Amino acid sequence: MFFSLGAFGQDPSLRFGGAIPQEVETVYERGLAWLASKQSESGSWHGGNDGAGIDGICLMSFLASGEDPNFGRYAPNIRRAVRAIIRSQDASSGYLPNSMYHHGFAMLSLSEAYGAVDESLLWEGGKPVRTIAQALDLAIRCAGTAQKANRWGGWRYMPNSTDADTSVTGAVLMGLLAARNAGMEVPDDVVNSALEYMKRCTGKDGSVAYTGGFGGFGESMNRSAIATLVASVSKHKDTEEFKATLKHITERLEHSENSYKEYFRYYMAQALFQGDYASWQKWNAATARALGESQAADGSFGNGPYETGMSLLALALNYRFLPIYER
User: Fold this and answer.
1) DSSP letter at 215?
2) C-alpha span between 115 and 232 (Å, rounded)
3) Residue 43: which residues within 8 A CB-CB, separation 6 or more?
4) What are the helix and strand counts (H, E) for the chain?
5) Can you give the C-alpha Rg of the chain in angstroms?
6) 325 secondary structure, DSSP code
7) Could you give the CA distance from residue 201 to residue 142 in angstroms, rounded to a whole number?
8) Dist. CA 158–CA 149, nearest whole Å
9) What is the pLDDT tens value at each position of the chain, 327 positions in all?
10) pTM of this prediction exceeds 0.85
11) 105-to-28, 33, 115, 173, 244 alpha-carbon distances in Å
12) Dihedral class, residue 131 (left if φ above 0, else alpha if ψ from -120 to 50, else beta)
């Protein structure tokens, strides 16, 4: 394993929101230990669909439960992950590979690390590539450049894509909103254009189209949850679209996904927490039980860093440490 058993992160009694359910603590601790053991010396995680976004998801898993990023037991893992993301970035375009999905999640994770990670310790005596703020500024500009080439005002898989979908757009938008929340300069027109695209894709019944820029056309709890989340974080809860998507997901708390289930839990947790706390409490209890029952003996989910990181982040609202989780 590549971590030290030195100082621990914050005591659970100090975590905002009261005592953490024991089943959540158990799942989370075992999951973090597995992620730490699978991190490469370079700081990345491997096991399918590798890239800056997967590293970002795993990085956020450590930060989300209040682990001390500078002197805690997992501080070396956190620093290695941040370095890996920054090193992967294209220095001229700001792109964080290997797709705009990865770009969005990597930008989100760097935003959550910014201000928490002591950059005097980050490069551990080596030559710094760039600061977290510099990496974020480049990533923000990359997102803006890619959007300008997109006729819909959103994003799809690659920076030069000319079409858009609500799933990728939601991921990039959350990265931008987190960067703005962290104090970075994010152009209003970039955020507003993406939000407008999400609104156009939302039907009156709360269903959200995958692509095309017109509401409805195929029900998806995943997309309705994403739309609810970006409207909440961007402070647009007064819109009819937000009310429709929130109603759509709160009326289906028993819904489960057979495909993309980790992705669904990740967005559902945040959307409910931001939109309807009582519904989140009910959904969270059921999800904690389900994840406790499905976690492998070694602490992983699906034997992969993506599945494990996303599963842990579905429970991370119990800790409420990441700034993007503020209500």
Assistant:
1) S
2) 23
3) 55, 79, 80, 81, 82, 83, 84, 85, 87
4) 13, 0
5) 19
6) G
7) 24
8) 11
9) 222 222 323 333 334 445 899 999 999 999 999 999 999 999 999 987 899 999 999 999 999 999 999 999 999 999 999 999 999 999 999 999 999 999 999 999 999 999 999 999 999 988 999 999 999 999 999 999 999 999 999 999 999 999 999 999 999 999 999 999 999 999 999 999 999 999 999 999 999 999 876 554 555 899 999 999 999 999 999 999 999 999 999 999 999 888 899 999 999 999 999 999 999 999 999 999 999 999 999 999 997 999 999 999 999 999 999 998 888
10) yes
11) 20, 22, 18, 10, 26
12) beta
169/174 Cα distance (integer angstroms): 9
Reading the block at residue 231, the tokens are 């409207």
Residues in the chain: 327
CA gap 240, 227 in Å, rounded: 12
Can you read off the two tokens belonging to residue 278?
């009582």
